[in-house]
Design a protein that fits this description.
Length: 152
């Protein structure tokens, strides 16, 4: 079946904006619990995409209110889920480090996720997606999607 696969990039950008804003707020307020909450939201959204809190805010509040318009493009959802899961793991490791009193590595991991999410949001480059496609090119099991060519 060659049905065209599509992803709403506005939902992805909304997700990234929430991640950046909440993790930056956690740093500014020195609130490790907020880092753990964001990690949980990211990991839950990776495992159960329909349960992703930030995606649900987009789908049920921002989009219906006309605050954010859909931007549906030919794309594979798997690399984006992989990227979110990877970010969720790094955020969870940052939260764990903070809980153990290792503030420098904890905030460094949190900062890494902020930086990569910002790079994706503002420059359109997804490090996790790039890693996913490299792994697919190497034939790693579970990484079976190739980039979708944009058709206009």
């Amino acid at each position: 079946m060659n049905a065209e696969r599509r992803v709403d990039h506005s939902a992805l950008r909304t997700n990234q904006a929430f991640i950046i804003a909440l993790l930056a707020l956690a740093f500014l307020l020195n609130t490790p619990a907020l880092v753990a909450l964001v990690a949980a939201v990211m990991l839950i959204g990776t495992i159960w995409p329909g349960a992703g809190l930030f995606k649900r805010v987009y789908q049920h509040l921002l989009r219906p209110a006309g605050l954010v318009r859909p931007d549906v493009r030919p794309d594979n959802p798997e690399p984006h889920r992989f990227a979110q899961g990877l970010g969720g793991v790094f955020t969870a490791l940052g939260a764990l480090a903070l809980a153990l009193g290792a503030s420098i590595p904890g905030w460094a991991l949190t900062g890494l996720v902020i930086g990569l999410a910002a790079l994706n949001l503002f420059a359109g480059w997804c490090a996790g997606c790039t890693l996913y496609y490299w792994l697919a090119r190497l034939g790693v099991p579970g990484f079976d999607r190739q980039p979708v060519e944009a058709r206009r």
